[in-house]
Amino acid sequence: MGSTSDAGTGRIVAGFLAPHPPHLVYAENPPQNEPRATGGWETLRAGYAAVRERLAGLDFDVIVVHSPHWKTVTGHHLLGVPRFQGRSVDPIFPNLFRYDYNLKVDVELARAIADQGRAAGLHMELMENPDFRVDYGTITSCHLAHPDWDVPIVAISSNRAYFYFSNEVGEAEMLGLGAATRRAIEATGRRAVLLASNSLSHRHFTVEPAVPEDPSFERPYSLNQYEWDMHVVDLMRRGRCRQLLDEMPDFIEQATSECKDGSLTWLLGALGVPDYPATVHAYGTVIGTGNAVVEWTPPVGSA
Amino acid sequence: MPVVAGYIVPGLPHPLLAPDRSPHWRAVRDGFDAAAARIRQAMVDHGADLLVLYSTQWVSVIGHQVQADPDAAWTHVDPEFHQLGSMPYRFRIDADYAQAYAAAAQARGLSCRPVSYRGFPIDTGTIVALQLLNADNALPATTTSCNMYADRGETLVLGKAARDAIDAGGRRAIAVAVTSLSARKHVRPVDPADDQLASAKDAEWNDKLLEILSEGRLEDVAQLARTVAHQAHADSQMRAFWWLSAVMGQHNRYRGEVLAYAPVWGTGAAVVELVPAQVAQGQHEFDEDDVDRYHGDLEVLESAGTQRGPGGAPMGAALGRGLGRVGPGEIPGAAVSLDKLLDQPLPPRPADLAGRMAAPAGTRADRSTTPLHEPPVVAGGTNAAAAPKPVGPYPHARRVGDLLFLSGVGPRQAGTDTIPGGAIRAPDGTPQDYDIEAQTRACIDNIAAILRAAGSDLSRVLDVTAFLVDMDRDFAGYNRVYGEFFATVGATRTTVAVAALPTPIAVELKVVAAAGDVDLAALADGKWTGA
Ligand SMILES: [Fe+2]
What we know:
The complex is a heterodimer of chains A (303) and B (531).
Chain A: E1 11-17, H1 22-28, H2 42-56, E2 62-72, E3 76-79, E4 83-89, E5 98-104, H3 107-119, E6 124-127, H4 136-145, E7 153-159, H5 161-164, H6 167-188, E8 191-196, H7 223-237, H8 241-254, H9 263-270, E9 279-286, E10 289-296
Parallel strand pairs in A: 1-8, 2-7, 2-8, 3-6
Antiparallel strand pairs in A: 1-10, 4-5, 9-10
Helix pairs in contact in A: 3-6, 6-9, 7-8
Chain B: E1 3-9, H1 14-17, H2 23-46, E2 50-60, E3 64-67, E4 71-76, E5 87-92, H3 95-107, E6 112-115, H4 124-133, E7 141-147, H5 152-168, E8 173-178, H6 200-214, H7 218-231, H8 239-248, E9 254-264, E10 267-276, H9 300-304, H10 350-357, E11 381-382, E12 397-400, E13 403-406, H11 436-453, E14 461-468, H12 471-486, E15 492-497, E16 507-514, H13 520-525
Parallel strand pairs in B: 1-8, 2-7, 2-8, 3-6, 14-15
Antiparallel strand pairs in B: 1-10, 4-5, 9-10, 11-12, 12-13, 13-16, 14-16
Helix pairs in contact in B: 3-5, 5-8, 6-7, 7-8, 11-12
Fe (ii) ion binds next to strand 2 of chain A.
């Protein structure tokens, strides 16, 4: 783990859109997860395999993850206890995801992000209750990107500003939080990997096949959602993230996007709203929702 | 009296974990304690033996879930209010009731599953309510999720399913809706002593709702839900009130009492008791339809034209392809299910179908039990042995001049009185799934039999009046089968929805045809001189 002596050398080594359908963990049958699968969702899993390969070649000492499934109204909360061990059961898909986790937290970086956020006028809280159960979005994205759990994480809650106020307020909160995250990483000398745990289009089927991994079930919920997802992925590929932010209100409204939970906006904020091309590792649907696994590697020397 | 009392209680953890940090939270806690004492008394006075909860904080998306782990234990920490402390719990869940509840919901067309997993994250609202109302597990309990897409119909049917299982088990239940009135929280920390409603509009509506509830008018509040959700920050669009009213019988005959009302972190936290009474105290404000069986919600048509793809291209023209709007719980406005419109997103797997078709405890019926009549013999009358016997003193058909007037005919089978495609309800009134296409086909077969007996046939039908009991659910299927027989006949047609038909069928047709010896072309010209 880095320390303040590295101050000045810290940077984001890569940022990923890393959605969290528990189906993908289920399909891999890791020892931590109780249910057993026969496979499924291979395209998206191949995308995550590419992420794991990328990370194997990168030098990083912390994973910072923003998850829609830790929802807070009063400000932004961060895990603030050095170690969490427990069982995560997905309340919506308990049949697929009952995962025993054991993870380390980079509390020093969490504190630094909280301080930077406060300095930027955000309300920040450290979650210091050791009985806390880490949300399944965080667990899923971290497992899929880096299942070794040998690197500490920082987990940030999803503030409800988009829902309580407007897209404008939500975006300001999340871009501000992203910038605060980057400043804290730089100030503490961390080499950080960022995970934005968002799906894209998010209206999904309300029935589940008897065999969850039945591939004959899986398709986009609607043409509309698919077209929006393709458009958004295309903007990412072409490095047009400013335009993506400008179109975010329509995307959220028209494709019921989970980006309303703010993770992607936070990531784009932390990366300084990239104008360089992203690498799209995969796109696929899970129970009708659109999910893309996307990588931004900031050019060395970029702010 | 299967439901001996109902309670509305708030689900934030403050009254459980920190009642003395704020006079407001203390007031709510006192209300909980009063309710707990009354529940204890109801066990003595009314033999209450079950607590059935519905919590807005347990969000589900694939239908509904019912807690069925007989020994549900964990240590819970609220995701937002973790600084208030941990909530260790161990609940005695009535797994048998939970299974029956889920089965009853399935029998009413809902997707519903009982959940029983070690470490399942029981929501803060359920934990607060059970800890404070039932601290020593004196009553076995269960709790239900709140589907964030569910509209009123789906939630009502769920409440009715809870009641089905209460009735079937001979239980004496207490129903608890775990919900705030207004649900908007503070977005910045406040001094607990100075807690107040987050919005003045919320405060206004909370007062109004409490006034109506104190008059025992639960169904009136349920009827107002959409208006409140539109005008204030309702908790999960007031779904819990739909559920509670359905469990308790959908009326206003209660004695209502507000045991507490105070702000908790900006939300409107009320503890309200509703006890069945002899007479309704308030006037009815009913204008919403009732619904017994879930077939999907249809308001989606309202938003169909507004759907747009990237770049602003209208998507609405491609109904069922371009639709995708409406979303996760907190998006304001009606959350709707589009599955119906999408013409079933998936063919149901055989196993699913079997699950959906099964009525509880083998009560499924597929035949009519309505008494039958021998048709009267009249001049020009026809009675066909191959058609079902009438349910009143009328012939199958009667000839007047060139025309044959047929009595309304349903799908019942001659002799056996079975209903192809299944009866729409069991003898005890429980709704059943049925196949409209099979019913329509049988109906037309009966008409063909009557026409044959009268010397005519389907190709000579001139006018059809169709009666459907559920236009939304059945029109498409009926229309498809109709087309198979009548596409080239050119009969005029009228299709209307009716509240009910005399037997448990979904479709009935009334036909006027040309007699078999009539020259159709001449009839059209008005030149037919008669046989
Ligand atoms: Fe999600």
